[in-house]
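Weekly puzzle thread! Below is a chain. First person to post its structure in token form gets bragging rights.
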Amino acid sequence: MKILYYDCFSGISGDMNLGALLDLGVDQSYLLREIKKLKLEDYEIGIARENRKGIYGTSFKVMLPPAAYTHQHRNYSDIVRLIAESDISERVKKTSLNIFLKIAEAEALVHGCDVEEVHFHEVGAVDSIVDIVGAAVCLDFLKVDRVLSSPVELGGGMVRCAHGILPVPAPATAEILKGIPVKSGAVPFETTTPTGAAILAATVAQFTERVHFTTRKIGYGIGRRDMDIPNILRIFMGDIVDEEHDEDVTEQDAWLLECNIDDMNPELYDAVMDALYEKGALDVYLTPIMMKKSRPAVTLSIICDQDKKKDMEEILWLETTTFGLRSHQVSKAMLRREFSKVETKYGPVSIKHAYFKGRRIKSKPEYEDCKKLAGLNGVSIKEIMDLLP
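Winning reply:
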């Protein structure tokens, strides 16, 4: 499986992305020919070899006359029409519009208006249109099977934009990256722009630091700042190492939180587990252990997504007797699942089926359905399950 892996240790912007993709091997003349199909005016493109902190890569810059910055604001409908009426391929149009939609939805939410009413400023200018459509052109050229990314560095401090001076991440960037793992504070500048964030949000299948692949090429996109860390976007192209990878198996990162408790009324665990599940825990379980002085105790374990970690911690602090907890990232692998209904003489029961390498390998009745029917009909749960195939 051919993959791209974005290493966003210094964030991502639209021009850094195009620089890295060109550095990776996208044909420069092909990219420029495709961009010209947009029929945009009053701009020039500069592509050069530069270095940051001794690391050489490719810089990509869209250069505009001063007047363009005041006259090139567009709304979402203008951009949709511009892309739709161009001669670029349908695949590139689709990817480009998906990226712009991410930005439009974020801007609409931040400014309290409908998507169609969103008036773009920086993102509506020629340089951002080139960055976004160019990204779609490059990804189509490379024809990778999957795009992956590391967590995204946001930077810190304040940023000046069309609406004034705003905190980093800018509100639109924060909205676009909801549900995506991020880092912040590496430098006191904005390192991830709304354009860069939207490119990732629209094209990346998984955000993870745990990925095993064989590297074939590496591209470096040079940013415009000289910072304490290299202002560079690094992109790897390679092959997934595991030849047994199957599309029926989904892998993703999660967090495992645990604490050992030896002084809590066991009757309280049921309420704690309910609270954790209600807040989005993926799994909660108890393990009996022996602690110092031979005291019987319990390890309370929770598996959750990155964005739920703080919610889980709050419940542990407020609803258990623990004074501390430990946590670390884990990798989860899950089989593809489908559900069907089986009619019994007592009523319908949902059956969960699991698939591997295109074949159904196991099935299991949903316990809660069986429990409900057993109660309604005055029979045992086992009798309900015995009726199922």
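Puzzle host: Confirmed. Bonus trivia for everyone else. The chain is about 30% helix and 35% strand.
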